[in-house]
Design brief:
Helix content: 40-55%
Mean pLDDT: 82
Shape: globular
Structural class: mainly alpha
């Protein structure tokens, strides 16, 4: 019986291939891809898994895309930083990376 993540991945095929063996983009590369029109859900999936598997963190603040995405990107990087036991980049705490309304 397939795992739920395998079922989800089959329904949301990514042309870049499966995430575990696929690219490990940095937060900055992810923001650039989304800004260029990539599906933000797949881009964030690749980022999240890649960071958990040891992918690179950007100390340089990524480009801004849209307030909700910018906030989500910062939250994911902050969460994975804590999970890996490393300090989060300073840009994740920028005041304009926080939403003032529920998404």
């Amino acid at each position: 019986m397939p795992r739920p993540s395998e079922v989800w991945a089959a329904r949301h095929e990514d042309p870049a291939g499966p995430v575990p063996g696929g690219p490990r983009p940095s937060p900055g590369e992810t923001a650039e891809r989304v800004r260029a029109g990539a599906d933000w859900r797949m881009a964030m999936r690749e980022l999240f898994v890649g960071l958990l598997m040891g992918g690179p963190f950007d100390q340089t603040e990524p480009v801004r895309v849209e307030p909700r995405f910018d906030s989500y990107l910062a939250a994911v990087v902050e969460h994975v930083s804590a999970a890996r036991g490393v300090a989060a980049p300073a840009w994740v705490l920028a005041p304009d990376r926080f939403l003032h309304e529920l998404w």
